């Protein structure tokens, strides 16, 4: 499972930070950062989700008010 985070879409509400500790506040930019991720496209960051953090990653995606977070299973199908 992996997460794709569109940082350009992020509006800095930080609900994701409260739900999954892979996200952290970047108060200088007014947006969240996805720790340990790599930038695969301009402002699109991707990180693999550890098995024991899948629920938290999905919940972070569900609470994002602007749908900046997408979760994909190992087959590449979007699950959130």
From TrEMBL:
The GO terms this record gives for MF are: iron-sulfur cluster binding; metal ion binding
Q: Which UniProt keywords apply?
A: Electron transport, Iron, Iron-sulfur, Metal-binding, Transport
Q: Which Pfam families match?
A: Fer4_15 (PF13459)
Taxonomic lineage per UniProt?
Archaea, Methanobacteriati, Methanobacteriota, Stenosarchaea group, Halobacteria
Query: What domain of life does the native source organism fall in?
Result: Archaea
Which InterPro entries does the record cross-reference, listed alphabetically?
Fe-S_cluster_ET (IPR051269)
Name of the protein: Ferredoxin
Species source reads Halorubrum laminariae
